[in-house]
Amino acid sequence: MYLQYVILAVYLLAINLYGFLLVRSLKRRSQERGEPARNGYGKLFIAGLLGGAAAAYAGLLAYKYNTDKLLPMILLPILAALNIYAVIALLRSGILIFA
């Protein structure tokens, strides 16, 4: 009966876990190479657009990964706020109402 809510919750958990683990892998890759990572923001922003911005931002802070860069430190919280707004709007609009 609550299958749509369960699917939404599992999706959000999965995409947030992916965003957090993506930051971890980018940090490890840059440490192994001994140079700062130049690429990787594309995947991070795509994960943020798909709903994983909050965990990606938390991952940036937890792993201290390029926190001096302005673009991810501003764009990811904005994307997180938009993700939260989209989920609330989706739930309130009646799209996930059972017939």
List keywords for this structure.
99 residues, mainly alpha, elongated
Radius of gyration over all CA atoms, rounded = 15 Å
Structural class, by secondary structure, is mainly alpha
| Poorly predicted tracts of residues | none
Give the overall average pLDDT.
Answer: 86
SSE pattern, N- to C-terminal: HHH
Secondary structure: number of strands = 0
Number of helices: 3
Percent in strands:
under 5%
Q: Please give the largest β-sheet.
A: none
How many distinct folded domains? 1
Helical residue percent band: over 70%
Give the CA-based shape.
elongated
Distance between the termini: 10 Å
Give a description of the structure.
- With 99 residues, this protein is mainly alpha-helical.
- The chain has one domain (3-93).
- Helices cover 79% and strands 0% of the residues.
- The chain has three helices and no strands.
- It has helices at residues 3-33, 41-63, 70-93.
- Helix 1 crosses helix 2 and helix 2 crosses helix 3.
- The mean pLDDT is 86.
List the helices and strands and how they pair.
Layout: H1 3-33, H2 41-63, H3 70-93
Helix pairs in contact: 1-2, 2-3
Short description:
The protein is mainly α. The chain contains three helices and no strands.
